[in-house]
Specification:
Layout: E1 5-16, E2 22-30, E3 33-39, H1 41-44, E4 48-55, H2 63-72, E5 77-84, E6 96-97, E7 107-113, E8 118-120, H3 122-126, E9 164-166, E10 170-182, E11 187-191, E12 201-206
Antiparallel strand pairs: 1-2, 1-12, 2-11, 3-4, 3-6, 4-5, 7-10, 7-12, 8-9, 10-11
Family: Belongs to the universal ribosomal protein uL3 family.
Keywords: Methylation, Ribonucleoprotein, Ribosomal protein, RNA-binding, rRNA-binding
GO cellular component, one term: ribosome
């Protein structure tokens, strides 16, 4: 496993191939990342790399973080993220990473926070079919119907699909393919959609379940 990178979601667009095929892609702006620290199994019990992005003035971070970055002799960063890696893929502190960390046609996993929908009913949240449109149903066409049994067990089981807060959760989409890379502008074009709203933060790393198509 290699380290991942931090990116910002710009939005979606479509790309037309030479044969006329239309491909929907999501545009991601990859932040220039710096290796802040290493985690070694001999010391910390696991192997990982801590990545920082979006450099900020020292007075924009807390005093403990100011000392932390000063000890590393690295400019303070607004964003910090730790990625698990293999021991062979540990990177030196201070090393710079950019969009060229990935390649076209590579499979990646993208993690982000899904768009919040607020309080949603069972039909929107869980795709329930709703009650009948006629024949005795009045006012409650979009209700979720019965939620339990009779006196035995006499309760509603946990995790029952019901109305409630929808979205605003950490989501990872697996095995997404990178269509192309714009090295000059630091952009990744990923086939299909990714979690989150525009300007949302995303974490991209090599796909775990699927090898690269290179």
């Amino acid at each position: 496993m290699r380290t991942g990178l931090i990116a910002e979601k710009i939005g979606m667009m479509q790309i037309f191939e030479e044969n006329g095929t239309q491909i929907p892609v999501t545009v991601l702006k990859v932040e220039p990342c710096t290796v802040i620290a290493q985690r070694k199994e001999s010391v910390d019990g696991y192997n990982a790399v801590q990545i920082g992005a979006r450099a900020v003035p020292a007075n924009k971070v807390s005093k403990p973080l100011r000392g932390y970055f000063a000890q590393k002799e690295i400019e303070p960063c607004k964003l910090l993220k730790e990625f698990r890696v293999d021991e062979a893929n540990l990177l030196a502190v201070g090393e710079k990473l950019d969009v060229n960390h990935f390649t076209a046609n590579q499979f990646v996993d993208v993690t982000g926070v899904s768009i919040g929908k607020g309080f949603a009913g069972a039909m929107k949240r869980h795709h329930f079919g709703g009650l009948r449109a006629s024949h005795g149903v009045s006012v409650s066409h979009r209700s979720h119907g019965s939620t339990g049994q009779r006196q035995d067990p006499g309760k509603v089981f946990k995790n029952k699909k019901m109305a409630g807060h929808m979205g605003a959760r950490r989501v990872t989409k697996l095995n997404l393919s990178i269509h192309s890379i714009d090295s000059e502008r630091g952009l990744l074009f990923i086939k299909g959609s990714v979690p989150g709203a525009k300007k949302g933060l995303l974490y991209i790393r090599d796909a775990i379940k699927k090898q690269s198509a290179i």
